[in-house]
Amino acid sequence: MIILGIDPGYAIVGWGVIEYKGTSHRPVAFGAITTEAHTDFNLRLEQIYNDTVELIGHAKPDALSIEKLYFNTNTTTAIQVAQARGVILLAAQQARVPVYEYTPLQVKTAVTGYGRALKPQVMEMTRRLLHLKEVPKPDDTADALAIAITHTQAAGTNLRDTMMKRGIK
Questions:
Q1: Is the pTM of this model over 0.85?
Q2: Residue 161 CB: number of other CB atoms within 10 A?
């Protein structure tokens, strides 16, 4: 099963593609979509959308896992991230890629086994699970890989059913 993990943003969208077979994870590709700070916001959204469409076309994922939106105090930033997230979800929908959403708590629990794990712990476990030499940069990329791993851990029966239908064991 190929999973595309996305850490949404409007300046940086982290992404990571992993292959999951049985109990092992293998990184396929990872990186970030970046937009320039002083560019018109609508053009930034267009770039995120276009780059996501291209990424989905190359990766051909069986699932897209994305972090659920949450915010504390800065509603302006939250609205902008929500808009970027919207164009990402549109790209997935148009490609008919099923979307699964996970909270930061779910990601921490799935990757480290502890819901209150600190960001460096999540990043290090992501590196270990994927047998990488170092934690991917920027942090958004490592987060996206962790979100992809979360889908393999959290999907449970749905993931097993899909794998069985495709003959993957």
A1: yes
A2: 11
